[in-house]
Amino acid sequence: MKKLLLLFSICTPALLFGQTINDGLMMPAKTVCTGFVYSHDQWTNYWEGELKRENGNIGTLTTTAATWMAAVGVTDKINVIAMLPYVWTKASGGTLTPMEGIQDLSLAVKYNFFTKEFGEDKFKAFGALTYSRPVSNYSADFLPLSIGMGSQNLSYRMTANYNFKKKIYVNASAAYTWRGNVELDRPSYFTGGQIYFTNEVKMPNVFDYIVNVGYHKGPLQVDLNYMQQNTLGGGDIRRQDMPFVSNRMNASKAGLFVMYYLAAPKGLAVRAGGMTTVAGRNVGQSTTLMGGLLYTFRFGPQPE
Fold it and tell me: Average of pLDDT values for 234-249?
């Protein structure tokens, strides 16, 4: 019913490059971008397997998050990215208890391993390795109110970017995520038509891809994107039942994001945007709005 999709929306440094973990841009060496992004996600209808329906016992499910983000330019070709969200969930109906807490710490290394120029155009390719794990003892066995999935994850991502005359860009990125097992606070569970007499749940892995088309000139960046996430295994939500942590959770989302670098104070950027779920399986038909402030500065000795 609900899936927390971790969107690695990071920064725009002082040289007016934007950066996320899945785009075609890099932070320059000895540059740090850090800040907070607030997101607000709501859904009333959801897909129970492939059946779209609503749940009057829950009403509207709201998930909000305040996420600290940072990107560090170790070199011009190697960046380190970190993210840590604090998440709140609540339902407008029924008796399910709201939940809140620190979710998962994500650490990523992004490497620009190939660049080729064609006149005013430029092609770049990137690889990224991301590790994430829970940093608080939240329960993953309380969906759709759980604040996270509770697993350790290792993800490898490849990204290709083509920039036309330093203004218009097309970007494509895909990742495979290995997910560790999750331990429940009960000795057995039922899923996929079978009872398991253990508290350990084997989590299916995940494949996702995102395609972006955008405009980037001076202090302004506008990005249109489409994202697809597919869980590689897992069963559907049973009729009239709560979702389970290892369910197959697929989602197709479309979004728009805007970044603008303020003239003053120098180094401060505003980021805003939104996404909507256009199709899914065992997820909510959610709409997400986001907004944040990001600040960039240089560190260490600078060239004269």
Answer: 92
Residue recorded with tokens 């489409």: 226
Contact 289, 257 (CB under 8 A): no
Q: What is the rounded CA–CA span in Å between residue 5 and residue 20?
A: 15
Q: Is the model's pLDDT at 296 over the cut of 80?
A: yes
pTM value is 0.91
The strand pair at 200-201 and 104-118 is best described as: unpaired
Q: Which CATH number fits domain 9-298: 2.60.120.260, 2.40.50.140, 2.40.160.40, 3.50.50.60?
A: 2.40.160.40
pLDDT tens-digit series, residues 6-47? 333 333 333 333 468 898 889 999 999 999 999 999 999 999
Contact (Cβ atoms closer than 8 angstroms) between residue 229 and residue 251: yes
Is the pLDDT at 4 greater than 50, yes or no? no
Residues 95 and 123 sit within 8 Å (Cβ to Cβ): no
C-alpha torsion sign, points 24, 158, 86, 234:
positive
Residue 152 Ramachandran class (φ > 0 left, ψ -120 to 50 alpha, else beta): beta
Mean pLDDT value across the chain: 90
Distance of CA 83 to the CA centre of its chain: 10
In the chain, domain spans:
9-298
All residues at 6 or more sequence positions from 158 whose CB lies less than 8 Å from its CB, including other chains: 125, 126, 127, 128, 173, 174, 175
